């Protein structure tokens, strides 16, 4: 199609999202830069003139009606189209204000980070969330469970809605909750949120709104859309299609639980979003735990109504609890601080080991002793053990249904079944059945009439009981059946692993996990990844000797300060695994692969025999502020040698100048977070200044590794768009590596044009 036909087709698709179902949209040229668009909406004929900046522009930049001209963004936002003011008004009503909210600090991760300093997260995210200009802007936010990313996002979305109503912001943010949705698809999640805010537009209209910059999509639970290859392909396809339809414009804010999912998105995007129509760039933000000052601010605000002596008493108690050795990793997380403060207002916490266990015990005790009492004699209806059993059954049912929400009817049915089993009847049973959906640790879900755990941490905690029970039966068939249900939360895997290693023989437990993978007849990758998470839970922060595992996939499950002596990891996959404080001493890893693992050369020990550098695809090096990525075999070899990898040699590589390889590796690090670069990009300045850059670019183009693409974006921009994964480019430096002919051609050209100085 010529540029006129492309423009008309694009505009027709945009307008069709607002037109009456089945109504024809007609777009006809009025001049080189003006087109007349007509369609029926709400039964009325609408007609406007749409303008484009140049004859090569693919999308409108303005709209004319009579003597009035407005921007395309304002036109789509208006009351006659999306009515974003109405959505903003309802957003303010739907998302409750957070009283005494204490914001989080954050770090900017990767090449964009020039200082390594902590910044105010709200200010940072708002400054980054600008519509892409030729590349869709993806702001990727990660945070550990309990840091408060959901609270932050909802706070920001509500604030932006207020600013929009006041005219202080030209774009509206839409909160989209993808957490816990069964095989979540982005279009379904968007449709649900639009329905919640009573929007009069279908989800199809979100594409032109985001592309034009009128709407910023804020997706919480982005990891549910990324998933892993296999059962989550459909979910990722919905995400890839949405980004593709944006055609290199607009902004999406995405939040996930860990940097693992950032790398998973980048890896899958490298192949799924590789066509010339899919330009995107990712900026990574890491949310941090509260500093001591932030924690004090929160405590002060929430105890301001209490007398000074009470405030000081509570403050001292909290400090004592949160600084205990067993809670050193969670003491500054907002979730634990706020829950501890909530419970201390009613009295001291129960004694015990571990802050989470003490919090759960306090909530359960308060529910049983104070609220779930017989309407006849006022006595407690359930024991604490029985109440825990009910919550574990609810968690197991959510797991089996692959969701984080159940209908209130389902929760009552569980209460009735379990209540009858433990001997409840009459008024007592009726009280439990009616009250359970509204009791402690549970809350209203995102769907009407649904029930969810108040926080994913509580869901993971109560999921440990059924998982421990099945795992403890030592039946690989039963274990395989439960592990293939969905992606196991890392918190649950860690908790179960720690519980089980205290009760059972470690090797026997690992054997059952490995056999469950071999027994899998369905989604073997899912079972392998979940089994790997449970195995990591056993090994984490623990010293083991002589263990043997095979066929497991270790993903984002934390190893912590695991020490494995004389262990064997056969045919295992380490994918995005954080091994920064792990140690493998005098061990073996025959047939295992390491894809984008993260190490700390100051602490990680990888005395793993049976490996070659070709077993490693990408290596993240933890520094004081972030991770630095290595992809060339020589750079990986140097880093792994410092981690103690035996026989870490690089052989049979193309003979190319070291400074040319360094420049290519720097380029690949930039390509990790985008598939399109321009020579004018700030981060490209060092590369472009290299005297060999023009020759390197020529080799990249001649081999087909990159292609040029011209776009109308604040003027005409020439993008250098990659056609292959950046990690594969450097992998191709080894002559026998399994890469495409395109990459082989690149290295042959580079070897011919830039032979190493030594060979001269």
Task: Characterize the structure shown.
Helix 12 crosses helix 13, helix 16 packs antiparallel against helix 17 and helix 19 (476-483) packs across helix 21. It contains 28 helices and 30 strands. Helices cover 43% and strands 19% of the residues. Strands 6, 7, 8, 9, 10, 11, 12 and 13 form an 8-stranded mixed β-sheet that branches. The protein has a 5-stranded antiparallel β-sheet with strand order 1-2-3-4-5. It has 760 residues and is of the alpha/beta class. The model is unreliable at 273-277 (pLDDT under 50). Among the domains are: 3-77; 90-287, 3-Layer(aba) Sandwich (Rossmann fold); 290-371, no CATH class; 658-753, Arc Repressor Mutant, subunit A, CATH 1.10.10. InterPro entries: NACHT_NTPase, P-loop_NTPase. It comes from Amycolatopsis camponoti. Pfam families: NACHT (PF05729). This is NACHT domain-containing protein.
For the structure shown, list the relevant keywords:
760 residues; alpha/beta; Rossmann fold; eight-stranded mixed β-sheet; 19% strand
